[in-house]
Amino acid sequence: MPPRRGIIVVACLVILSTIALTVHKVGKARPEFLGKLVTSKASSKAQRLHGVKETSSKPCAKDVGWLANLDIQFPLRYAEREIVVRPKPGLKRKSLTKIDESLFPQAKTLVAADETHLGLLDCKSPITLDVPVFPTSPVNASSMVFGMATTLERLDDSRHHIARWLAHTQAKLMVVVIAPEKGRQATDEQIAIKQGVMRDQGMDVTLVRPLDEGEIYTESYFSLVRVMYRHRTAASSWFVLMDDDTFFPSMQALLAMLGKYDHNRQYWIGAVSEQWWSVGRYGMMAFGGAGIFLSRGLTAVLEEEYDVCMTEMHKAAGGDERVMRCVYGHTETKLTNEPALHQMDIFGDLSGVYESGRFPLSLHHWKGGDYPVDLMSLVSDVCGDCVLQRWQFGKDTVLTNGFSIAEYPEGEYANALDFRKAEETWDSHTIEESVNPGTWHSMSPSRPRLALDTQKIQYRLLESTVIDGRVRQTYVHKSEKDSDPVTVLVLYWSREDSGPWNKNGTRSP
Prior knowledge:
Blueprint: H1 3-50, E1 57-63, E2 76-88, E3 96-99, E4 108-110, E5 117-124, E6 127-132, E7 144-150, H2 152-166, E8 172-177, H3 188-200, E9 204-208, H4 217-230, E10 238-241, H5 251-258, E11 268-270, H6 276-282, E12 292-295, H7 296-304, H8 306-312, H9 319-330, E13 335-337, E14 347-348, H10 351-354, H11 373-376, H12 380-383, E15 390-393, E16 397-400, E17 404-407, H13 412-416, E18 422-423, E19 426-427, H14 440-443, E20 446-447, E21 457-467, E22 470-477, E23 486-495
């Protein structure tokens, strides 16, 4: 090979080696640079999530096979959150408590009912809510004797609801078993069986026949005054007449209310109707559905006047009217009105009553309506008198515990609303020439109703049950648009230090 050509070849080889070495270095540098970019983005995202208090979330899988057992149309949107309640000494129940975070994570779509697991996009950590301290076992209500007059069939429809507040409390329940309007009176065997069933549920109940054969319902109702008084014990201080669809959310709250009064004196405690036209017709009367509370002192007098009152009051339209006529006709006692007792003589959509944030001592007319008071009150097993208590999460969501979750789409609009005022969702009946438009005396202050699905999106309680020591609540919203899927929001409630009560009246560990 000529010398010049050899020099050229060597030069070319040197150049090629340099180029190869440069390419090799660039090839290693590029992924290192990209790696730094990826690490920087991930680190920045992690810092942003870490800085959000109590709202950080992460992907998770949930067992939702139980949804197939509910009457819900698929596909649906689903989200859930766990709430841990913490009893706090000295804390008093508020009408509305504001929480500076959202309640639910992003909802996920569930396509078919046979899907048993759902991979949620994110899951929020449990949120802790403070509640007032409450008893860890059923309260001692041996000072109270309750009474109702009803058929055996209607009693059976109500017994699970009655057990929610009466079982294991040592309070007595006297039931005068009347014949249905069309049908025969129950047999002794049927009465004994029903009494045994209710006692097995932890209720101190006694079923009796009417005092006089052939008496009408209003007479049987008034006869409870004598029936209860004759079954009194040394501890019996208060005698309570009620309907078979009267519900008391909290025995503890009832005892606290009665604790303000001396049972040895003559007290007639109750509530007038929420509708002013009813008050105008019947006057200042304790309406039976709200519960009529007679002190031992007054009941003793009514027992003495019983035969006279039973004869004189034959024109009374209702049993509670008979009680009123006897009290006004034979004593100087006047009605002591307790507005937290509710006759519920209002019609239409009662959401405004339940969502008012006002704790009811009694509720009425739940039969035949869309108000499952037994399911609503189930959460009280883990949070006491928190039933129908309200919490506002963020700017646009209000939970009325056991009844509904309301979202206000305009965000800041929720902050502009005066939640001290009950929303007038119900139908009012006005009285001509009356200043009271209908419910001022019972539901004020109030505000106009909102338009559903535009100003307010309401998720109503569909189901509530105890699962592994927690109370599960299922709230559902169905849009007026058929094309929009049903949205299901689920809350799991648990107590920080223990679970719900056992059947024997003690708390689960």
